Amino acid sequence: MKRSNSAHQLVMDSLTEALLQLMEKKKLSQISISELCEKAGVSRISFYRNYDYISDILTKYLLADLDLWWEENNNSVDIHIAPQDFWKELFSHLKKHERIIRLIYKSNESVIIKNIIFQSCGPDRTCDENEAFARAMLAGMIYGYTDEWIKRGMQDYPEELSIRELLSFLDRTLNKVD
């Protein structure tokens, strides 16, 4: 059993690396499954056993990594208390995947990052209406902030801006409208 898991992981790793190499030369939308499988040295059946679309490779890879980071840091990074260093921790983690993120943005596929954030902390079927809207707003803010950081070169960000301050700003802005 362990052997098939490692073989399975080898296929996924080969597809991921082959995709990144191809994306260094062309946009994601220009890469075919046949070309990807040939570059990775795997069959199309192996591709379809793991993914529906080529973009799923990046989504699943980054989502699994982000979920692992969240689990490892759930004591130090808690959305409910919105620590001052949330962005620093998140962006430091994302910076480790700068190559992938830059290739995603070079291909005009920022929706992959949005989907990862919404899958990580956005609403799901178990949420009641209030929680669903709150989680959607939070995920949207995290995506917007992260997207702007990426577009600005993944360097500096206003460290003093916490999630709590973003929510407070939103509350003040909405109260001005009333």
Could you explain the architecture of this structure?
- It is a single chain.
- This protein is mainly α.
- It folds into two domains: 1-51, Arc Repressor Mutant, subunit A, CATH 1.10.10; 53-177.
- The chain has nine helices and no strands.
- The protein has helices at residues 2-23, 33-40, 44-50, 55-73, 86-95, 98-106, 111-121, 129-151, 163-177.
Summarize the structure.
With 178 residues, this protein is mostly helical.
Rounded mean pLDDT is: 85
Largest sheet: none
What is the count of β-strands?
0
Name the structural class: mainly alpha
Strand content: under 5%
Amount of helix: 55-70%
The general outline is elongated
Essential attributes:
9 helices; 70% helix; 2 domains; Arc Repressor Mutant, subunit A; single chain; elongated; mainly alpha; 178 residues
Topology, pairings included?
Elements: H1 2-23, H2 33-40, H3 44-50, H4 55-73, H5 86-95, H6 98-106, H7 111-121, H8 129-151, H9 163-177
